[in-house]
Amino acid sequence: MKDYIEHYRRDGDYFDYNQEMSKGRVEVERRRGEAILSVLKSLTGGVVLDIGSGSGKLVKSIAQRGFTLFPVDLSYRNLFGLNHINKIYPVLADGYHLPFAKNSFDAVILSSILEHCEKSGAMLSEANYILRPGGLAIVVTPYKERIVYHQCIHCNKLTPAYAHLQSFDENKLGEIFQSSGLEEIKWFVFANKGLDVCRLNILLSFLPYRLWRIFDSPANYITKKAEYILMMGVKKG
Q: Quick check: pTM over 0.85?
């Protein structure tokens, strides 16, 4: 991608991340946030960086649990709605070049970000740099995604749908964690596509996250059709 900064600034201007979604999609995205919150419970407060914060829904949820949040995004519009909220300090910056000192954060989140990056290892290395020793790196990406290409009407070149440049599984993510200096400690897949297609996610929406996982985990084991993978690692001391 020749000018990713300009691309994602325009993306934030053109695309409304707070637009209405289908009920099924709302549930999938809600469970993605809950999966991240479930692994953050190992921390008792602290300072968290969210790289590529988008609409900021996750940031607001984490801030309500006593954390101090620094959402980072390339879009003014995405960050504008996070101004003047207690314990949230939005920063306009590039995830490859973070404007923070070494050992500044207790946790870093990259949720649905690495699949957009040509150099995913470089971004995770930058995240590792600003983490404190023992700090958590939490990465969520689509799981074993089949990237679809479309012909661009402007340049007639093949363009990946949703600007997804890479596909990940546990092995590829594990290698990136290791090369970035992070020690992988946990990973799991979630958000079964079959439950979504059958609209069972909507029927199960009343369940708290832990009980929902009782249905989601076996479905992923049987069908091998999870939508997301979450991998967590720590910065080596």
A: yes
Identify the CATH number of the domain in which residue 194 sits.
3.40.50.150
Contact 186, 231 (CB under 8 A): yes
Q: What is the 3-state secondary structure (H, E, C) of 173-184?
A: HHHHHHHCCEEE
Note whether 136 and 39 are within 8 A (CB): yes
Going by C-alpha positions, the residue among 165, 163, 157, 73 that lies closest to residue 118 is 165
Q: Residues 85-143: pLDDT tens digits?
A: 899 999 999 999 999 999 999 999 999 999 999 999 999 999 999 999 999 999 999 99
Contact 62, 108 (CB under 8 A): no
Structural domain for 190, as ranges: 4-235
Cα three-residue angle 190-217-175, rounded to 5 degrees: 50
Sign of the CA dihedral with 36 first, then 56, 78, and 159 last: positive
Domain count within the chain? 1
Neighbours of 34 (CB within 10 A): 17
| 67 or 10, higher pLDDT | 67
Quote the pLDDT of residue 152: 85
For residues 93-110, one letter each, b for 16 or more C-beta atoms within 10 angstroms of the residue's C-beta and e for the rest, the string is: bbbeebebeeebbbbbbb
Q: Do strands 131-142 and 226-235 pair parallel, antiparallel, or not at all (unpaired)?
A: antiparallel
Q: Which residue has 């076996």 as its token pair?
A: 218
